[in-house]
Amino acid sequence: MIDRPDWDSYFAGITMLVAQRSTCLRRKVGALIVRDKRILATGYNGAPTGLKHCSEVGCVRQINKIPSGERHELCRGLHAEQNAIIQAALAGVSIAGSSIYSTTYPCVLCAKMLINAGIKEVVFMADYTDQLSKELFREAGIKLRRLTI
Fold first, then answer.
1. Class of residue 41 by CB neighbours under 10 A (exposed 0-12, middle 13-18, buried 19+)
2. What global pTM score does this model have?
3. Which of 37, 38, 20, 40 lies closest to 28, judged by CA?
4. For residue 149, pLDDT beyond 80
5. Which residue among 57, 73, 113, 117 is the one 20 to 30 A from 141 at the CA level?
6. Candidates 56, 70, 81, 139; catalytic one
7. Over the stretch 60-94, which tens digit does the pLDDT of each residue have?
8. Whether residue 81 lies in the annotated active site
């Protein structure tokens, strides 16, 4: 019998590989949207397409000493979850009813987008302290699972 990873391990491994494409200087995050064991979209955190990366111009958040988890709008980059949603939209792929794998628990901005996009499950590998995000997911009835890989 061939030893191969279960579906969670398989998708988590791909999500961690996607994170390696990140251009963020503070935290590399990857996201993978899946439905019916099929990958619909991927995303990693970094500057918008065609704009200079933080590695080229510096990190706005570091320069201004902005603590993690605060003032999300003061950043050149998009979050991995946002980029995955956008990638699906650009390709005309509905993500309603799907699961998202993320290397890090989604922030409240991403949580609101994931709720409106119809995501039914969030699978994450590392926690991120954002109480409002947790409350919104709970209220929306979205399943949360933490993987230990």
1. buried
2. 0.93
3. 20
4. no
5. 73
6. 81
7. 888 988 888 788 888 889 999 999 999 999 999 99
8. yes
